[in-house]
UniProtKB/TrEMBL annotation:
Protein name according to UniProt: histidine kinase
SUPFAM superfamilies: ATPase domain of HSP90 chaperone/DNA topoisomerase II/histidine kinase (SSF55874), Homodimeric domain of signal transducing histidine kinase (SSF47384)
Sequence intervals crossing the membrane: 26-50, 153-173
Keywords: Kinase, Membrane, Phosphoprotein, Transferase, Transmembrane, Transmembrane helix
Organism from which the protein derives: Shewanella japonica
Gene3D superfamilies: 1.10.287.130, Histidine kinase-like ATPase, C-terminal domain (3.30.565.10)
Length: 442
């Protein structure tokens, strides 16, 4: 029992695309919560800072007005709307405010203790020729945000966080549908046994996945076509080899039945021709399946008239027996790469097809003919036979499998050596087979 070759697998992580979506969801949730927390803390800090700065600026800007009022004789304490109280002596300062005179001159800030919060502006001014102290106070409770307002801010932050998570979740869903789910769908389809007829992805997937899916379907169709062609080729190749083999077996049996020297010589010639045909077929088939590059195994050479005549000799003799005129028209000196066996296989099959398609209902003044034209970059085989049928025309547009082994081998060998083979109808009857050769040089 033959050991199956080991196929090396691409090294990847054990993480699947589906688990990647879960991990991505966790990342997005973490990022959303972190961003919401940062925004909440930043918002609270900014609100508190702005709240304090507004109150302190209000105290500082009120100082010049208060000084003028005291200098004009206004008694203390002086109350300014909405909640600023001014003093210039410590006797009128409420005891709950503590020792405000202990704060340095020019102090403008917030005083926090266990019982209350107070904004204080400390300064001095001239009153009746004497330097006196100035105290501007503002209770923080009257200007700071209330608990209800802070709750509203917290509620807004929570709603903002929730909205951010919803937005990120929506983005993740869209990303998954366009980039992740198509991969999962294709993986599931590739894992099915048997494989589906065609691969498909969701229409919302990214354009690249559509291109990938179309490529997979195209490659699969090409593989199926190649498999069918290989099966047809093997079937036709066995037939091609069976025909000369039958001749060899039949001739060998006849040799033992009739000792006549001329008869035996004819049978030997039949065996020799059949064996040579099988050898040419085997050589052509080996050229198809050889692994070496044709550039290394068969260097380019110029096709000579002698090689051509030897190549088509058997087919020409067969054509003469059927009263078909064969002419060769040299108009160039082409360079070829295949060896003589392949050249013979190509041209013999073209000529045999032309011979088999010999026209039976030709005008009285016209005879059957086959014309071979040799150009620098083409070999053209033209005949006035039956031509292509409608079925054969349709098959000629798709592949060569409908024309028998001859054209199957021709098409395969042409692909092997980068030749182009075309077959079209001739006017008014017959076919034109063209072998287009690549540009080669010695």
């Amino acid at each position: 029992m033959l050991n199956q070759p080991k196929v090396s697998r691409t090294s990847t992580s054990n993480t699947t695309a589906r688990s990647f979506v879960g991990r991505l969801s966790v990342y997005f949730a973490f990022i959303g919560v972190l961003a919401a927390g940062i925004i909440y803390v930043t918002m609270i800090f900014i609100l508190q800072w702005v709240e304090d700065e507004v109150s302190l600026n209000n105290l500082r800007e009120s100082a010049p007005y208060v000084v003028k009022q005291f200098q004009s004789g206004t008694p203390e304490p002086l109350v300014l709307p909405p909640n600023i109280t001014a003093f210039y002596s410590t006797n009128f300062i409420p005891k709950k405010y503590g020792q405000l005179q202990n704060y340095p001159l020019g102090f403008n800030g917030e005083i926090n203790d266990d019982s209350h919060e107070l904004f204080l502006h400390r300064d001095e001014f001239l009153l009746d020729g004497e330097v006196v102290q100035l105290y501007l106070t503002m209770p923080a409770d009257n200007v700071e945000l209330s608990n209800a307002q802070w709750k509203s801010i917290s509620t807004f932050s929570l709603l903002f966080t929730l909205g951010l998570l919803i937005l990120l979740g929506y983005a993740l869903i869209k990303l998954s549908k366009r980039l992740i789910e198509p991969i999962n769908d294709l993986s599931k389809q590739l894992a099915k046994q048997p494989l589906p007829t065609t691969f498909s992805v969701n229409t919302s997937a990214a354009k690249e996945f559509g291109i990938l899916t179309d490529s997979l379907n195209s490659y699969r169709q090409q593989n199926e076509t190649l498999i069918k062609q290989e099966q047809a080729f093997a079937r036709y190749a066995s037939h091609e080899l069976r025909t000369p083999l039958s001749i060899v077996v039949g001739a060998a049996k006849l040799l033992s039945k009739k000792p006549d020297a001329d008869f035996q010589l004819r049978q030997q010639e039949r065996i020799t021709r059949a064996a040579q045909d099988m050898q040419n077929t085997v050589d052509a088939l080996l050229n198809i399946v050889k692994q070496e590059k044709s550039d290394n195994s068969n260097p380019p050479r110029q096709l000579t008239e002698q090689e051509l005549n030897q190549t088509i000799e058997t087919a020409v003799n067969l054509a003469k027996k059927q009263h078909i005129e064969v002419t060769v028209n040299w108009q160039g000196n082409p360079y070829v790469q295949p060896n003589t066996a392949v050249i013979k296989m190509l041209l013999s099959n073209l000529l045999n097809n032309a011979i088999n398609a010999r026209g039976d209902n030709l005008p009285d003044d016209e005879t059957s003919w086959i014309k071979i034209t040799i150009l620098d970059n083409q070999i053209v085989v033209e005949d006035n036979g039956q031509g292509l049928s409608n079925i054969e025309k349709g098959q000629q547009q798709s592949d060569m499998s409908g024309h028998g082994l001859g054209l199957v081998i021709i098409d395969t060998l042409c692909h092997r050596y980068n030749w182009q083979f075309t077959l079209k109808s001739n006017h008014p009857r017959g076919c034109i087979a063209t072998l287009s050769l690549p540009a080669l040089s010695l």
